[in-house]
Structures are given as structure tokens and as C-alpha cells.
Amino acid sequence: MSIRKMELFHVELPLKRKVKHASHERSDSDSLIVKVTLADGSTGYGEGVPREYVTGETIASTFATLKAVDCACLGHPGTYLEAVRRLEAFELAPTRSDPRGMMGNAARCAFELAVLDAYGRRFGESIGAVVRTATVPGLKLSTRPTRVRYSGAVTAASWKREAYSSFKLWLYGFRQVKLKVGVDGQDDTRRMRAVRGILGPGMDLRVDANEAWSADSVLDRVRAILPYRPSAVEQPVSHSEVGALTALRPHLGVPVMLDESLCGYPDAVRAVDDRTADMFNVRLSKCGGLIPSLRIIGLAHRSGLGVQLGCHPGETGLLSAAGRHLAGGVRGLRYVEGSYDRHILIRNVTSEDITFGYAGLAPPLTGPGLGVTVDTESLEALTVAREEICYE
What we know:
Blueprint: E1 3-20, E2 25-38, E3 43-48, H1 59-67, H2 80-88, H3 93-96, H4 105-123, H5 128-133, E4 148-149, E5 152-154, H6 159-171, E6 176-180, H7 188-199, E7 204-208, H8 218-225, E8 233-234, H9 245-252, E9 256-258, H10 265-274, E10 279-282, H11 284-287, H12 290-303, E11 306-309, H13 317-329, E12 335-336, H14 341-344, E13 361-362, H15 376-382, E14 383-390
């Protein structure tokens, strides 16, 4: 059963509130949605979130990347497992020439998920089966899909809004919270003290600097917040200075998580070899999709490193569903982010609402493919550009 047609959608999603951190600020989110149609009419959808400041991709570049894909390389899978194995061998041409293995990652993620969704519906298999059957040595798997506990986030905002967000997360029963730090003009020590005071001593509270601090200042920055017991510090320095963490990390007094410096498998190997991290922040779009993300997680498991499954602000229900399948099938994830759908998007492209519930808890998804249905009316309303590629 081969691919007959691929459709690319540039979707612009207005956010309910502005999302701000040290690297960027946005009030809307641009997503790439891919629709794949098989020869028998089965369809599947996938999503990528191109961010030029993360993987160097734009919507235009993802369109160009996918228009160059020859779907004939996937052949005619006769089973879902065969489709998975062919995707395990699938590479985008630009990826081969990129030493960081990140150019085209958002495009690959959207394409891979669309193909897995389409063949999942064709053969009556869930994308969760990919997690259980992926060829990844050392990957720690659950025996069956489990419920997922998501963590909350307090973004850089006015003190009144930060206090309100912190209190709401405490009241809603969350056990883990991330605080965005490193924004110019904000006193992170005061913010950390105040947020810790609201969340209480039992909350797992970590910080994300989004590359804001220099290697020369990071020791002082971290020491100033250590009294408030951060459980991890995410991407404290820019990628250009990440090598400095080899010497700095043992003296910080808190585990270091890489994000912007973890955009592909070569980044992960380098981090393990150079000992620049205690944890990886794996995001499906940033890391190239489900299968490449599982490979990075497998490396972390083999190397004794912790893993956070992250997300991009503004993801639709498609990436939320894919993240749910991964998080429900892999054991030992330290933190899970995502499924913020109803809390951040004014309008979604999926019919089902899979936003997390009380305490950040969410059940595993059932049904074929991603387990969610695209609302074609919403997709059309949110689409600002599209292209169609036929293979017959």
C-alpha cells in the first residue's frame, strides 16, 4: 500500500496569552501540518513546529524539504511493523549533510507522524505500537500504555500573573513546575523565592534559562537560586558555549538539562562524550519525530542520563497525541510537558480535547493511528498557505 498524495498546510494558531522566555516571545504559533493519503484512500496527519532559532527551519524551508521527498522509498508496506521499519531507515537529504542532525527535523516529524497515522488507520494499529516495537537498544519500555502525569510551567510575566499561575498550579494538584528565568530586567532570585513560597517545599521546581546566561556568569546565577532548591536547570548557556559545561557542571550543585543543544542524535552523542549534561530535553518536532526521539531516549537510558519529554508552546492536538503515546510507553521519564491544548490555544485542529486533567494526569489514547480526529473545518480556517504533491 503506497502513498498516493501528500498535502502541506501552513497553520497559524492564535494563543490565549503571550508566551515569553529568554530566547523568544510569541502571541501566535506557526505549525506545519502534513496530510498523507494512501492508495486505498486511508489518510493520516502529522505536525511539526519549525522554529528558526531552534533548528534553523521555517515554514517555507519545511515545504521545500518535503516537496523534495520521494515517497517511493517507503515502498508498499504490507503490515504496520513493515511501515515502521521503513521509516526507521528513512532520512531526509539535508539531514545527511548537517553535522548536528537537525536541519529538516520539524519537517521529518510532521511527515513521519502523518505516515504512521495513515498506516495505523489502514492496519488498525495505534502509534503506541511504534514505541513498543522500535529498534532501540536499552530503551526502557512499559508493558502496556500507562497514564501520563504532565508538569506545569510558569512563564516570564508580571509578578501578579506569575503569582496567579503558581497558585493555580498548586491548587490544581501539580507535583512538578518549571519556572522560566533569564529574561532581561527580571530578578530571578526574587522570583524563585516568591514562586517557591507559593508552591511550597514539597513541589519539584526546576528552572529553564533558554540560553540566557554566559558561561562566565552561570555559577553565580545558579548559586543565587540554590537556596530555593531547584531540581534542574535547563539550557543555562547558549549552544555556542555548551562545551564549557564539561568543567562547570560538577560545580553547579544542580543537574543540567540540555534543550537548544540537543536537536538531534549527534548532539546527544556529543553531550554524552563531553559530559555536558545530566538530562536531555527531547521534543518530537525538534528531534525529528517519534523514531529519532526514541533513539535519543535510548542513548540517555544506556548512559544513565535523565529525560524530559518536552513540547513547543502552541502545539496542536496532533503533537499532543504523539507525545502522549511516547510518554505512556516509555518508563523512567523524569518530566513530561505537553497537552496544554485547551489552556493555550484559542482553536485546535483536532476534534477531541486531550488536554491534561487534575494534577496534570491524562489517560492513554486508544484507537488507530494517533487516536485523534482532525477537524477539517478548523484546519481550513487556520490554514494560511498550502501545497499538494501527487505521486500517481
